[in-house]
Amino acid sequence: MPTPPVKTAQHHRSDANSGVNGGGGTITVGVFVERVDAADALWNQCDEPLGRHKQLVLQPGNVDADHIFCFGTPWPGSGKLAIPSMKRRWAKFRGTLSTLRSEMAWAPFAGRPADQVTVLFGDPPPAVEQAYVDAAHTRTDRVFGPDKRVKNPIVLPVTYHQYEDVQHFRAMPRQEKTVPLVAITSGAAALPGHRERMAFLRKLRQAGVPFELFGRKLPEDLGGRGALLNKSAMLKPAAMALVIENFSEGDLYVTEKLWDSLMCWSLPLYYGSRAIEKLLPPEAYVRLPDLGEAGVQTVKAALADRGLYARRLDAIAHARTRPLGDLRLVEWLSQSLSAGEGGATWPPVMAGAAAGAVRS
């Protein structure tokens, strides 16, 4: 989808960083991740240390950087905004509290030219209020996400929810697979997709399907073993991973749940949107037809097929290069900020396939 090229605003350039990587085409990017205050946000994706990736230098929290990148609405890490109590009560009475909160979240970027701000929504569309989408569009036309309401709908670029960085996973050999199947998920129940996932886990338990279960705040009846500090600790020894997205409609939404498993050499048993069909060869995952009886039978069949993992290993090896390479969020951002009038092609076409792509 065509969007205007990005111009580097010299009056916002940080003097301390203007010479990084030789200067010239370097773009400092102030990174703001919704409800996350971390000085190294997205650094684990970068090809160089300290948030350096191609022409980009990622600087979380820097409001004076050349360009501002917001992954979601730029709420502070606490998620709390200092709204005066009377103003809050009045907005709540009028039904405009979400609009007020959005305006305050965006206040630090007032006055920034529209072409110096990029927004990427990463949550499932039902979790993103319309007021937050509208607020982003008042700041810039460069609003992206797996959501038809945004100016530029795209397949969600890859993020990781693991401690190790991209170099670690690129160099990581396959470990011995001693766990047949693992599921790592929270017990969240706010969205329909959350509740459907919990119901499916119960169906598997009731059917006697063996799998290891980890995650935060899981219902006691599911027999979870608790939260993990790092997902890879359980995914690395797992031959297969149950991957159930929070939102399965359309062909744009796909999350770290899929990528984390592939990066750890685990075969995903996947339920989600059609986006996966644009991104990976079908041999790199097992598609669950539903979260009902057919889905249960598919999981049972995968566990019963002792040679399945070995037969899919070459496809997994090929598939895992994509979240470690051309599908990363930092790759998309680099292309998006340097693209000409035609925009960047996203997602990059899968090698050897005729997968569709859009202009972003």
Commentary on this structure:
The protein has 360 residues and is α/β, with parallel strands linked by helices. The chain has 2 domains: 10-157 and 328-359, no CATH class; 166-319, 3-Layer(aba) Sandwich (Rossmann fold). Helices cover 28% and strands 15% of the residues. The protein has a 7-stranded mixed sheet. Strands 9-8-10-11-12 form a 5-stranded parallel sheet, sandwiched between helices. A two-stranded antiparallel ribbon has the order 13-14. Helix 2 (97-106) packs parallel to helix 3. The relative contact order is 0.13. Residues 1-24 and 353-360 have low confidence and may be disordered.
Topology:
Elements: E1 27-33, E2 52-53, E3 56-58, E4 67-71, H1 85-94, H2 97-106, E5 117-120, H3 130-139, E6 143-145, E7 152-153, H4 166-171, E8 179-184, H5 192-206, E9 212-214, H6 232-235, E10 238-244, H7 256-263, E11 267-271, H8 276-279, E12 286-287, H9 293-304, H10 308-319, H11 329-338, E13 345-346, E14 358-359
Parallel strand pairs: 1-3, 1-4, 4-5, 5-6, 6-7, 8-9, 8-10, 10-11, 11-12
Antiparallel strand pairs: 2-3, 13-14
